[in-house]
Design brief:
Elements: E1 16-20, E2 23-26, E3 31-34, H1 37-40, H2 49-61, H3 72-83, E4 89-93, H4 96-112, E5 120-124, H5 133-139, H6 142-145, E6 155-158, H7 164-168, E7 174-179, E8 182-183, E9 189-190, H8 193-206, E10 209-213, E11 237-240, E12 251-255, H9 257-260, H10 276-289, H11 294-315, E13 320-326, E14 329-334, H12 338-347, E15 350-351, E16 353-355, E17 359-362, H13 370-390
Parallel strand pairs: 3-15, 5-6, 5-7, 7-10, 10-11
Antiparallel strand pairs: 1-2, 2-3, 4-12, 8-9, 11-12, 13-14, 14-17, 16-17
This protein binds pyridoxal-5'-phosphate (PLP).
Length: 391
């Protein structure tokens, strides 16, 4: 018999009742050190006092009004994001997938009058952009598209970090290139800065838009507000979600005026997107991440964690192969099965996430402490020993 919850997830037999910073407390009172953070969503940890306060205050005043009215909380968050990024304008969504939908629509609309043949979006192998028809067509992966055809047309995939895309994007039917600066689901695979720079240059030369998917790697995760800042480039359109709401469902598309100017009244909308409650929380999250010294601390803790993980890999060469990624978006490429290590982690009370390419993902709260980093590595070591003993 089918369970009451559609069984699309293979769930671990754990249920949490409470969260405190980098810790999750299970129904039986057991405490788990959370290096998953809701898959890079709980950027400020669980139950951050400021976010709890904003949620309670805004929750007592006004949750939702339609976008047929002005929403001051939305205006405040948009202004903050514009101030701290390349963008001139922002549209709020409830998720990364919806941000992907708008990014695709915006790119196509951009050319619809001036060059209507430009509809194709070039994306990359290993990419993850969400689960909508457009997002799975963009990723093109067998696992995501199988059985869901006919696929939305107008997408093609190329080798991530490879050369073919540079020739392909010169075709006259290309509207945009869509890429994650660091692939998350794909296995914490970081694009090289030089490749991203060349991609930006090639898009400019061909008159093609560059869409960056920073749903996972954005909002301070890599030690800069947005990952593309490390490469010294800016996109035309960018998708954001996950960390921006700190756990409240919130996403956004950020864009330059040039890319966005065809999106006129009536061309797009959302019932919930940009509601006062979500935007009040998003503003609090963004103010904290862009606040004095916050990202310096992320960078300091990131190098501490990375160094400790290098030691862990060296001490357990049968289990781990290398550390990859950037900031607090780190991956351990595994020799043992990554899912076995995730499983052993549950026993050691440390939570991690599997990713493609046999990688163990570590996406702790950006507020994780030095002591918690040391504790995390100790617990990962316990998990590694468990896996070794079973080998
Ligand atoms: C999670 C994710 C998405 C999809 O976001 P949802 O909020 O799950 O719809 C899109 N792109 C990337 C890079 C992601 O990590």
């Amino acid at each position: 018999m089918i369970p009451a919850i559609l069984p699309t997830y293979n769930r671990a037999p754990l249920a949490f009742e409470r969260g405190e910073g980098s810790w999750l407390v299970a129904e039986d009172g057991q405490r788990y050190l959370d290096l998953a953070a809701g898959i890079a969503v709980n950027a400020l940890g669980h139950a951050h006092p400021k976010l709890v306060q904003v949620l309670a205050e805004q929750g007592a005043k006004l949750w939702h009004v339609s976008n047929i009215y002005r929403v001051p909380q939305q205006e405040a968050l948009a202004a903050l994001l514009v101030e701290h990024s390349f963008a001139d304008t922002v549209f709020f969504t409830n998720s990364g997938t919806e941000a992907c939908e708008l990014a695709v629509k915006m790119a196509r609309k951009h050319f619809s009058a001036s060059a209507p043949e430009r509809t194709r979006i070039l994306a990359f192998n290993g990419a993850f952009h969400g689960r909508s028809s457009a997002a799975i067509a963009a990723s093109g992966s067998e696992k995501m598209v199988k059985g869901f055809g006919p696929l939305l047309p107008g997408f093609a995939q190329f080798e991530f970090g490879g050369e073919e895309v540079f020739e392909a994007l010169k075709a006259p039917d290309v509207a945009a290139v869509m890429v994650e600066p660091i692939q998350g689901e794909g296995g914490i695979r970081a694009a090289e800065d030089g490749w991203l720079k060349r991609l930006r240059g090639a898009c400019d030369e061909a008159g093609v838009l560059l869409i960056l998917d920073e749903v996972q790697c954005g909002m301070g995760r890599t030690g800069r507000l947005f990952a593309h800042e490390w490469a010294g480039i800016t996109p035309d359109i960018m998708m954001v979600a996950k960390g921006i709401g700190g756990g409240f469902p919130l996403g956004a598309v950020l864009a330059t005026e040039g890319a966005a100017k065809e999106m006129t009244a009536g061309s797009h909308g959302s019932t919930y997107g940009g509601n006062p409650l979500g935007c009040a929380i998003g503003t609090a999250v963004t103010e904290i991440i862009t606040g004095p010294g916050f990202l310096d601390e992320v960078n300091r803790k990131a190098s501490l964690l990375r160094q400790s993980l290098e030691g862990l890999v060296a001490a357990h060469p049968e289990v781990f192969e290398e550390v990859r990624g950037s900031g607090l978006m780190l991956g351990l490429k595994c020799k043992a099965a990554n899912t076995d290590i995730v499983q052993a982690g549950y026993g050691a009370h440390v939570l991690t996430v599997a990713a493609a390419d046999n990688v163990l993902r570590l996406l702790p709260a950006l507020t994780i402490s030095d002591d918690e980093i040391a504790e995390a590595v100790t617990r990962l070591e316990t998990a590694a020993r468990t896996v070794e003993a079973a080998q």
